[in-house]
What we know:
Blueprint: H1 2-20, E1 37-40, E2 51-59, E3 67-73, E4 83-86, E5 93-98, E6 107-115, E7 118-121, E8 125-127, E9 137-140, E10 151-159, E11 167-173, E12 183-186, E13 193-198, E14 206-214, E15 219-221, E16 225-228, E17 239-241, E18 247-253, E19 256-259, H2 280-283, E20 291-292, H3 300-306, E21 309-310, H4 312-315, E22 326-328, H5 331-343, H6 351-355, E23 387-390, E24 396-399, E25 402-410, E26 415-422, E27 429-434, E28 443-445
Antiparallel strand pairs: 1-2, 2-5, 3-4, 3-6, 6-7, 6-8, 9-10, 10-13, 11-12, 11-14, 14-15, 14-16, 17-18, 18-19, 20-21, 22-28, 23-24, 25-26, 26-27
Amino acid sequence: xxxxKIQYLLAFVCVLLCACDGIxxxxxxxxxxxxxxxxxxxxxxxxxxxxxxxxxITNDGGSKINSQGICYSRTSTPTLKDSVVVDKxxxxxxxxxxxxxxxxxxxxxxxxxxxxxxxxxxxxxxFSTANPVGYPVLSTNFVSMITTSSVVSGGVIxxxxxxxxxxxxxxxxxxxxxxxxxxxxxxxxxxxxxVCQLNHLTPNTSYYIRSFATNIxxxxxxxxxxxxxLQVILPPSNTVTDIDGNVYxxxxxxxxxxxxxxxxxxxYLNGEPIPNVTADANWKNLSTGAYCSYKNTNSIDTITKxxxxxxxxxxxxTRQIAPNGWHMATESEWNxxxxxxxxxxxxxxxxxxxxxxxxxxxxxxxDGTPGKDIFNNNSTGFTGMPGGYRLSWDTFGFLKSxxxxxxxxxxxxxxxxxxxxxxxxxxxxxIPIDKKDGxxxxxxxx
Length: 446
């Protein structure tokens, strides 16, 4: 009995001593911490060698995340024993770039996260790398429309190489195999077939040209084409050239030298453009210079043959439209021409036939008219072409039936003198008319 009391006393003393030392005598319960919970994000930005993937950690498991990232392989359940990309930022939603991928039927990827309890994985996501990007494939067009200073070429892209075309066009130079380091003209359209006009070439010079196309992979070139720009041939002495570069035949008739073609210049002598007015409503309200082609045609053949039509305000403009050394003929100078044609009609028999061209006129049965026996016209070489006119209050008319030419002679505020030859009239008409009308112009040498 005494021995038991001593044991109880010793036990009590031990309890007191443990309490004093802060020893926790409670029984520890098991921890509730788990491994993290996360999902794998969709793979994006896939190329032939790279992609981007990531994860979203929705629960850290009650313990700090020590490592997170992506593991991937060509098997269906990648782990940390396979390829791994570690995320260094430690955010709950993260992304990683996968590199050095190779073409494969499929890659399998999972996000992972590790805490003190262990590693968890997200769901498996699969993807395939994109087809490898190659260089574009294209050919160079044959050159066309070669002049002394320009040429037209282009290219046809048959494959973009698996990547959008960033830039395309033609490059050229005087040496073989030109590149984009030489002269370059780019095409801004999205078409696979493109056309480019090269300008500012040197006359009578050999050039080499190639089309090019650039994608993310790089630049490739079409086949090489060579050409030689045309040699400059000076016009013969019996011609005159306007500021636009149009060359006109000239003819000396008596003491005068005239243009043998209707004027078609579209700029004043100082280089400023003459407005091209097409709408009838605008034309009839003009009080300044303007021009138009007959019925606003774009036909180069028609414009070259018949010239263009001008209102009289062009004639009176101080900027001038006649080439240097030439001027607009006055009513008096026209009468001198008509007098010479009257006295020297020859086979043409009348002044209108002597001045009218031997082509393009409507036929007419009366003797002495330009429309009768037109092959006998033009004994003077003046070659009057029936370019028609544009009425100030209406529209176009009289192509191939009448010539109307302005003189520089002003009659009053609204009218100026013009000269007319008609296919059915054996006389030349010289009378005033509305300055707003559109008529042809012939220039005479100073």
